[in-house]
């Protein structure tokens, strides 16, 4: 919904109707909440500034500011420093098992969601010393370094930075589809992995890509995946939105207890 349509919708909701009770800021907050619940204001939509909205609706600026603050407190709106006020990009939380190795694409499809990837950068070059050690490569063996934004139903959920030896892929493999599908097609399907999870906060650049506020919580997942013959096929560092994922594991009491 653009600015003109928003102003028209809010004006049609009778904010100044004398039959209504309650302060104007409450009426404005209720009208905005209605637009969000009806799907007319989508997550991530930018709202007019306080002054602009106040002038358009012939309200006091304090009225708009108080309505915005109420909606931020409830989580319906969010303020992004230097950018303005937006409809909250909160997402439905998902549980992800720590014991099952699957690709992002396969996991989203199993939930009935449409997976997608947007390439942030793609390069074929030599590995860093750390990557050479982790992947068991010589310093002159080329790797594909692929940074992608992972989305589900158009919503950004994770930034994935993968490093894969070219010998397992081929120079033109790896892109908008599933990296695991590409590895499987080449006969190099990962069968096991070691993952490390760390709670972090997002830097301004990563937060902007994921459409959340700078400093928002995230989960950093470092994964080293192996083939059946124990060769390392992938090293990935991914930042998952902290408001979207719960990682769960089933624990069993050992025989020695």
From TrEMBL:
Highest classification ranks of the organism: Bacteria, Pseudomonadati, Pseudomonadota, Alphaproteobacteria, Hyphomicrobiales
PROSITE patterns: HTH_GNTR (PS50949)
Listed PANTHER family: MANNOSYL-D-GLYCERATE TRANSPORT/METABOLISM SYSTEM REPRESSOR MNGR-RELATED, MANNOSYL-D-GLYCERATE TRANSPORT_METABOLISM SYSTEM REPRESSOR MNGR-RELATED
Alphabetical keyword list: DNA-binding, Transcription, Transcription regulation
Domain HTH gntR-type: 22-90
A Pfam short name: UTRA
Signal sequence range: none
Source domain of life: Bacteria
Record keyword Membrane present: no
Transmembrane segments: none
Name the record gives this protein: GntR family transcriptional regulator
Coiled coil: none
């Amino acid at each position: 919904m653009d600015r003109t349509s928003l102003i028209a919708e809010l004006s049609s909701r009778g904010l100044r109707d004398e039959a209504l009770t309650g302060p104007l800021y409450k009426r404005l907050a209720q009208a905005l909440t209605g637009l969000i619940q009806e799907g007319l204001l989508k997550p991530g939509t930018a709202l007019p500034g306080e002054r602009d909205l106040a002038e358009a609706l012939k309200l006091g600026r304090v009225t708009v500011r108080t309505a915005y603050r109420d909606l931020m407190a409830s989580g319906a709106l969010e303020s992004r420093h230097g950018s303005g006020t937006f409809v909250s990009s909160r997402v439905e939380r998902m549980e992800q098992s720590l014991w099952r190795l699957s690709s992002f694409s396969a996991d989203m499809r199993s939930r009935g969601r449409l997976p997608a990837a947007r390439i942030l950068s793609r390069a074929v070059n030599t590995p860093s010393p750390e990557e050479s050690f982790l992947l068991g490569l010589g310093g002159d063996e080329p790797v594909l370094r692929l940074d992608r934004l992972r989305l589900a139903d158009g919503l950004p959920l994770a930034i994935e930075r993968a490093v894969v030896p070219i010998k397992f892929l081929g120079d033109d493999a790896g892109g908008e589809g599933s990296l695991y599908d590409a590895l499987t097609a080449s006969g190099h399907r990962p069968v096991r992995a070691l993952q490390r999870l760390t709670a972090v906060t997002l830097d301004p650049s990563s937060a902007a890509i994921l459409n959340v506020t700078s400093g928002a919580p995230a989960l950093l997942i470092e994964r080293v995946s192996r083939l059946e013959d124990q060769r390392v096929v992938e090293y990935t560092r991914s930042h998952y939105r902290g408001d979207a994922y719960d990682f769960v594991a089933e624990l069993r009491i050992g025989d020695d207890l």
